[in-house]
Amino acid sequence: MPVDHRRIQGPECSEDYRKPKTLDAALLKKGSRRADGRKCGEQRKIFLKPGVVSQAKGSAYIELDHTKVICSVFDPREKASRNLEQQTVRGEIFCEFKFASFSGVQRRSHQQEADDKEYSLLLKNALEPAVCLHEFPNFQVDVQVLVLQDDGSSLAAAITCAGLALADAAVPMYDLPVGLSKAFSGDTEFFDPTGAEERMCLRGVDGESDHGVFTIGFLPTFNQVSQLFHSGHISSDRFGKMISEVGTLAAEVHKAVQAILLSAVKSSIDSSDNSKLLL
Amino acid sequence: MSVHIKTIHPMKYMRDFLARNIRPDGRKLSEVRPTAINVGSISTADGSALVKIGNTVVICGIKAELTVPNAENPNEGFVIPNVELPPLCSPQFKSGPPGETAQVSSQFLADILVNSKCVDLQSLCIMPDKLAWVLYCDLICLDHDGSVLDACVAALVSALCTVTLPEVKFDAITKNKTVELEKRRPLTLTCFPFASTFATFDENSILADPSEEEESLCSGTISIVTSGDSLYSVHKPGGCQLSENRLSECISKAQKRSLTLRGMVEKSMESIKS
Amino acid sequence: MSSTNERIICVPGQVLCASSNDHVAGQGTFERMGYIYASLAGVVKVEKKLEINIVQVQSLKEQSTVPSPGDIVTARVLIVKSRQCMCEIKCIGDIALTRPFRAVLRQEDVRATEKDRVKMYESFAPGDIILARVLPIMDVHTYQLSTAENELGVVISHSEAGVPMVPISWTEMQCPVNFTKKLRKVAKVIPENIDIDMEDNTETEKKPST
User: Fold this and answer.
1) Identical fold at C2-59 and C72-198?
2) A11 and B70 in contact by Cβ < 8 A?
3) Which residues form the Exoribonuclease phosphorolytic domain (chain A) (predicted)?
4) Confidence of residue A23 (pLDDT cuts 50, 70, 90)
């Protein structure tokens, strides 16, 4: 492997001290409660905060129990390409999604890994339909996302967080996008899965044909799906049913995001002399 | 109007404030910004800390792994610090491999670890020449608003304080290692170095704990790493000259601040224990 | 929607009102299926023009403004070449930008008369603050500026002694410390700009780093 001279190098090889965990087959405890005491359709407590990065135009932080994601959005800048053919009448969202090296059970490399790239693209696809791209032709808005700790549903958390950060940066949007994630194995469905539940459902339990995880980007005001990412196996009937349930699940998160944003706007009116400007 | 002078004529903007012995954010020249230290917030890491100095935020996560010690130092483990300045923390950074500032900061932290010997590398050795711990300390800046080195050093030291390592038994003959995840012992630090950055402006004003705006306008910065009485590093990358008196003034201020910061780390350590 | 002191605060995607002949969508809003929605988080403002109410949302953050042709901008000269000089736009009108834009000022756009006799080195120097007008965009990647008006040109320029120079004619500026004269394309400035610079007489001053 080539030596990275830009970083302080450790020993050539090192290994995790934890043994690869034998996957816990019993995800549901007695009384159909999950490992962390939630019901199947229950969401973890959401903590959201806009305006956490002073150097960014807009930013937000989201915490779903152990899943912690921070996002910052910057001023629109001219698109990098010099090629005239690539100039478009629409703006663009540029996303960079990164897991911190200490975010997971296994240590991750500093370089961008395959899933970082994949998630960057998924996030971009989820956000673009929500943004009024025609308002900044030929410009791109940079969205930077860092997962500080990953305990499942990190892409869904990132979508919600980036939506709030974009609104905080005063990027014109049609709606506040909301990210939702669901894992399923057999007949049991886990809304807002933890890391263990995600891994379990992706692998699938022996004897059950249906298993997998899907993450959805949703625009609640217009009841539109902006992006859907599914991996695993599911019958098409059941899939349709799951999608139709999304609306009600999203409403709760959407309300929370709206409330946070409203109070942020209110407090900034109260604290600044912007008020005289607005009279 | 002030915002225009600031963008068009930043030097004058700064001087007008300093002439009245006050800084653009309302601080006195020697006043540091409010500091907060939060330890153990990342449970996937073996040790972690989040340090906030004013707007500047640095998070440090430490992952411990097992490795074979270096042949030159068969009874020592490793501590590998790396600083990341991602584009997330400020628009001045580009994505991709670490830039010059990040590389210098990483090396600065590595030097402090060597000079201060705050982690006894021999205590990281499990069996000489066979097995030792390597602590990967990854520091990520989340908000770049000046004096980032101070926040990095504080985050590194506080995160090291929280590291606990499981007991490992190594059988030299069968090369079997058994890790007892339940039996964890904390890492002990021999000293607690902390950095204090000062910015020099026009050769006669010295600003403690400069913000990003001040750092970009000043003629030079100086970072002093101390732990109470001992001095581990004085880092002055270029800039204007500094008289001896001024330097010793800075050093004594840095020493005082290192004690305050140490108190804060101890306090936050207590809060997670209880 | 929620209101404090009779101000209505909204978030993106919120319905503001039904769109009709006398209610139209303005800045910070969009229209869809007969309704006006907010596209920004901020305060709702209704502006009455003739018989029409324009529904707008004003954000608390500064809107990201982009220079458009005809705007008067404040720019700093970065590099002076023989046929053009590179500048960065710092302010558009009276809005200070958080991120500067690159712009070019060509030899033929320096002044309105005797265009061919303009020498760039005798008109600008790196570090000068100039007022200029944005020209129609020709190249996608750079803005073109013009100073071919009496009110446009150099407004702040520092001499070798580091002090701001005083304009003495349309083509010259003088250093108040060592009285050297320098050639510039001087703007006919509004008096308040001169006041600001006159009070600044510290001799230890250095040139702002370029």
Assistant:
1) yes
2) yes
3) 42-172
4) low
Is the separation of the CB atoms in A147 and A69 below 8 Å? Answer: yes
- Asked whether the whole model's pTM tops 0.80, one would answer yes
Cα separation of A79 and C141, whole Å?
A: 9
The CATH number of domain A35-78+87-271 is 3.30.230.70: yes
ipTM of the complex, rounded to two decimals: 0.91
- Closest Cβ–Cβ partner in C76, C91, C200 for B4: C91
From C12, C43, C141, residue closest to A82, measured CB to CB: C141
- The CATH-assigned architecture of domain C72-198 is Beta Barrel (2.40)
- Whether residue B31 lies inside any domain: the answer is no
Rounded distance between C-alpha atoms, residue B255 and residue C131, angstroms: 49
Q: Which CATH number fits domain C2-59: 3.40.190.10, 2.40.30.170, 3.40.630.30, 2.40.50.100?
A: 2.40.50.100
- Whether residue A52 lies within 8 A of chain B, CB to CB, comes out as yes
The domains of chain C are located at 2-59, 72-198
C60–chain A Cβ distance below 8 A for any pair: yes
Angle between helix B148-162 and helix B244-273 axes, rounded to 10 deg: 40
Into how many domains does chain B fold? 1
List the subunits that have 3+ CB pairs under 8 angstroms with B.
Answer: A, C
Count CB atoms within 10 A of the CB of residue B90. Answer: 21
d(CA B139, CA B144): 13
- Name residues whose C-beta falls within 8 Å of residue C105's C-beta, 6 or more positions apart in sequence: C77, C84, C85, C87, C124, C130, C132, C144, C145, C146, C147
